[in-house]
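REQUEST FORM: STRUCTURE PREDICTION
Request ID: SP-0412
Submitted by: Lab K.M.
Chain count: 1
Length (residues): 569
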Amino acid sequence: MLNALRERLENSERTTHYATLGILSGLLVGIVILAFRMALELPQTSLLPSGLLDDYESLTPVTRFVLACGSGLLLGLLLWVSGNANTRTGLVHVVDRVHNHHSIMPLRNALVQFIGGAIAIAGGQSAGREGPAIHLGAAVNSWLCRRFKLPNNSLRILVGSGVAAAIAASFNTPIAGVIFAMEVVLMEYSVAGFIPVIAAAVTGTLITHTALGSAPALAIDNLSLASLLELPLMALLGVACGFVAGLFIALQKRVTRLRHWHIVARMTLAGGITGAIAMAVPGVMGLGYDSIQLAMTGQMGLLALAMLISAKLIATSISCGLGMPIGFIGPTFVIGACLGAIFGIAASLISPEQASPIGFYALLGIGACMGATLNAPLAAIIAVIELTQSTHMILPVMLTVITANVINTDILRQPSLVSVMLTTVGSRHQMSPMRNVLQRVVVNSCMATKVSQIPPSIKASTFNALLQEDVNFFTCKVDHQWYVFERSQIKLQGTEDIDEVRPTLVFVDTPKGAHIINSNATLLEAHQTLQQHNRDILVVFNNTHPQPVGLLSRKMLNDVVDIDSGWGR
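STATUS: Completed
RESULT:
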């Protein structure tokens, strides 16, 4: 059954099978995300005096400092023991693995993300839980794919499904999860790719609904635009959010210059700075959803809002820039909500009778800051609509998000924060039509299968029998090097009395050196292997046969895509 499934998954258009895998992956990811949320929330409800989530305000100023600094030190020791290779985590790590490492997610990094993320967030760092959730969702599906030895073209799709399920399970936003996975992680839209991603997002949301209920993550009454005359002010909010997002990105870019410091020193410094800020602004600690709710309901004054924006900008930029295993999207929610609330208060002062609620502006700020920071306007728009479950947000949130994106990308010339952080770790994501085509097709679906292996020495009678078979190519391994021969290259020397025939006596032309590759690999992996080893042909093996099962050449690759031009045929 598994072999039959593998064969069907080689064709990315097999939507029924991919949808089934999407449901299974969504179920697993939903369970993992629930476990992660419990790891965050149980310490808070047990240790905070009020027993309420994120209520770090109930701690004394000194206790807040000690908690943040201590959790930073503990986190630094954990990352130091784990080793440098295992400390790459979060959304940036997922994007890097998808685009540069064929979507293979190391399990050790995921384990560090689970434990480290829980320590950081429960310990009061200025963080978001979506980064760890995205990493865990992607890693679960990567493990699932490799555990059942599924073809590598399905690995990328399932990692995207894991991301969608993680976002959906974290925020009760299935559509936003789908758009986020396609726009931010996979960076492409395809009909075949949507099916499993949607299935995973729906399943992940159902898991959350069953365990935690179906209430929207951000709830506020009377979400409607009071007057079209407010649209210019909302566009101005988009401008402000664009500049703040640019500042957020620029700050992190500068802080990343300190990444050569020892990991324990970096984490302790980040925790200490957050703790010091929290002594004056306790709302900087944790996820900040309580602060968002206060801002949306108009319970924070202008000074408190401005202080929280500054605190979140500084603390999150330092923590993320120094490499803490936390998310940065959640803090952009807090920053955007506070900035939007400031504009909401201004609107109520300018025209009390024709002003939309402060919460309405706060939600627009959330979408604008998220969209500009990630350069993902569609994901931000859908997220706000789903978080509020209100269609009244569509027009104003589109205006605000697009304005913020234009300011950040065209005026400030800032790339997305993901691109900045990828550059920091010496990586980048490459997108082209050629890569997209090559990633969807596996070697097994287009290789030459009429292949036979011969040993370094072979009896003439056995060799003659091989020539009678319907075989186009022969492979031979000599001194750990693979060689490939065509029938036309073969010529027996001597007579039938020759006891053995060596390759140097059998082949008229110089044999072609070859490299090996797994039949589950994508054509992109095959192309990169050919380039890396300077070969024109690959010997294909699979996981169940010790003998070669096929060949793949540059010419066969060009039959699928024109590699030189980068455009699929």
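NOTES: Residues 189 and 556 are 26 Å apart (CA to CA).
Reviewed by: T.R.
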